[in-house]
Amino acid sequence: MAISSSSSVQRARQALADRLTELCRGAGLTGVELAERCGWHPSKSSRIMNARTSPSPDDVRAWCRACGADDQAEDLIASLRAAEGMWIGWRRMERTGLKQAQQARLPLFERTRHFRAYSSWLMPGLIQTQRYTEAVLRAVQRRRVEVDDVAEAVAARLERQRVIHRGGRRFAFLVEESVLRNGIGGREVLDEQLAHLLAVGSLPSVSLGVVPMRADRSRMPVEGFWIFDMAQVNVELVSGYLTITQPSEIAMYADTFTELANLAVYGTNARALITTARDSLR
């Protein structure tokens, strides 16, 4: 990507900082004067105005009060919460367990009509088998979640998978060939998953592409991502869950998906790679 995957978050924070700066200047105040009115250290207002520090809701209320703009506080707090919601660390998202994190995404899947998913390390969640999902979520739970609600989380993800069989939706899945050989859960689980992949790939609403392993590719693998219509992109990173809504960045991910899709094989050729991966398990 030409810009970092967190640039949408930074843009949102900068936009809030710019609005607060405008309020300060509109009130005829310097940053130091505003800090004095709020009872802050002089450097705090500067850090907020330059988007180096994210204000709290109470900070925003104090800022608006100092500028004589109490009527704008709630709108600015809404912008603050929207910016914070773009990036959620796994610890925060999964503090009560995995089930809630799975259920929270259901409305997004239900309202989306065109799904595009690229995965460079695991099968996309919508086309995972129950045992594969259980292996994935169990690994997640062991690594970073104290609450063990894996069984409930698996059920929630399987419930979400029902959208793939509903009408009026299109699905395009791209996986790297290495995903076909990533044996999380063991050989039997992977073999079952690959058989399921062959079945899913035959659905009329589904386009399934496999990007072959080769030494002379023109486009390197990137982080896995989902595109929901052209309204939102979600990226799962090591440290957290990123939501992108900036149109220019969504377009970048859409272009990247197209580039990777052009490298992929489909139909008979994709099934041949899947079948070869299954044969290797035996």
Automatic annotation (TrEMBL):
Q: Per the database record, which ranges form the HTH cro/C1-type domain?
A: 19-74
Which GO molecular function annotation, any one, does this entry have? DNA binding
Superkingdom = Bacteria
Signal sequence span is none
A Pfam short name: HTH_31
Name of this protein? Transcriptional regulator with XRE-family HTH domain
Instruction: Tell me which species this is from.
Output: Nocardiopsis mwathae
